[in-house]
Structure formats: C-alpha cells, structure tokens
Amino acid sequence: MLLQRNHKRNHWVNKLKVKGIYTKPNRWLLLLLLFPLLILSACTSGPENSKKDDATPNKENTKSSGTAFKVVIDPGHGGKDNGATGASGRYEKNFTLSLSKKVQKLLEDEPEIEVLMTRTDDSFLSQESRYRPKYANKQNADVFISIHGNIFSDPDVSGTETFYYHKHSRQLAQTIQKHVVEATEFRDRGIKKEELFVVKDTEMPASLIEVGYMTNPQEESKMWTDEFQSRVATSIVEGIKEYREQSEGQGNLEWIS
Fold first, then answer.
1. Fewest C-beta atoms under 10 Å: which of 11, 120, 146, 237?
2. Which residues cross the membrane (predicted)?
3. Residues of the chain by 3-state class (helix, strand, coil), percent to 5
4. Strand order from edge to edge, sheet including 143-150
5. Nearest Cα to 107, choosing from 135, 77, 70, 82?
6. Rg, C-alpha atoms of the chain
7. What is the pLDDT of residue 36?
8. What pLDDT score does 203 carry?
9. pLDDT at position 251, please?
10. Among 4, 33, 2, 69, which Cα is nearest to 242's?
11. Contacts of 54 (CB under 8 A, 6+ apart)
C-alpha cells in the first residue's frame, strides 16, 4: 500500500513538473521570507522619500548674498571731553561731530554700505569704558574710522595724518590718508602706527584721522567752513569705497590680526 501511495505521489509530481507548477518546498519558504523585504523596500523608495531629498537645503544656495559693508564712524571726544581747543577757542568735539554727520549722510546714500555712529550728539564716552571699540566689535563692523582734529604747542605745525595699529589696518590708513590729503590740501604727514585704544582694541581694520591742526590759525579757519567739511567728508567716503573694492579684489575682507 505504501509503495502504491509513493507511486501515485511521484506520478502527480512529475505531471506538475511538466506544467512548471511544482517547485521544491524550500523555494516556497525562501519566497515567503523575501516577500516582506521586497514590500518594505518598495515603500522606502517611494514619492515621500523623494520629497525628503528634495527638501534638503543646498549649503551653497543658503549662503547670504548682498550683505552690507558695515562702517562705524567715530566722532572723537564729546560731552565733558572737549578734545583740543582751537586757535579760535572752539572745541574739537564739535568739529568732529559736524564732519562725521556729513560722512554719515553720504554713506547713507550708498546702497551696499551700512553706516553706524558711536555718537550722534554731544555725548560723553569715557576712555575707561572702551565703548567705542567695543561698539564696533559688537556690530561686527568691516571698518572703523575715528575722526579728530590735531593740536600742538607750536601754532605753525600743520598737516593731515592718519593713525593705525594692527597690520591689517595699514592699507585702510594709506587709502584714507591719500584721499583726505587731496581734499584738505594740507601738508601730508603720512600714516603712523600708534598704540591708541580706538585702533588697537578694534578687531576690524581701523584708522584715526587727524584732519588738521586746530592750533594752527590758518588750518583751523578752513576746518570750520561747510565747504571744507563737505569736501573732506566726500574724500573719506571715497577712501572707504576704494578700500572696500581693494579688499574684495584681494579676498581679504576676512582679515587676520
């Protein structure tokens, strides 16, 4: 009986093999195991996953463009700190504020430049607080320009000079000095490295301009005129713009101390 049953089984198996229906049991088991994996793979490669990839930001595309070039203008002295007293008895603090406001107004007309002022009135900013350089650093400014009038015991001493401290500020000082001297038509006293806190404590390129000697009667009389201040303000703006172009061309806006 067992032999007969085996014979019948083999007979049906052979018929199924001929029709291509029969496979060994282990193949069916393999298909049953693989089927869930195939379904899972199809789901994870569907449209939702594609959208997630599309939503991944491109670092190059998210980079900000058109960032303004920040300029901090610092009118020297102020409040109870009068600065130099000129030959006429007028104070340096008033001269620096008047000239600085003219520079501010011109820079506000430059669409790619943002201008900031350390003071816009007769405010006192103590040296001990180091407010001026701290303010520029906090604003992450690109350049810092401090405006002053000079003084000396000899009234015949005259001229325009610009101070800097850090190596990365030298080019700014040279560029500003060149333009301002052309505007003042005073003696060119050049640029000098000096340990002045407003140019030493600032992290960005910084320069301090001594426009002229207020103790020199001839120079001081010109320095108070609106025509002279407008001309010098224009020269400072042109110097800033030229320095910006130089910096971008050299790729050194990311300066190193």
1. 11
2. none
3. 50, 15, 35
4. 113-117, 69-75, 143-150, 206-213, 160-164, 188-193
5. 70
6. 38
7. 56
8. 98
9. 67
10. 69
11. none
Q: How far lies 105's CA from each of 23, 86, 136, in Å?
A: 90, 26, 19
Angstrom distance (rounded) from CA 1 to CA 10? 14
Q: Between 17 and 151, whose confidence is greater?
A: 151
Q: How many residues does the chain have?
A: 257
Tokens for 226? 């609106």
Question: What is the four-CA torsion angle of 7, 11, 14, 19, rounded to 10 degrees?
Answer: -160
User: pLDDT grade, residue 250 (50/70/90)?
Assistant: confident
Average pLDDT over residues 61-82: 81
Amino acid present at 101: K
pTM assigned to the model: 0.73
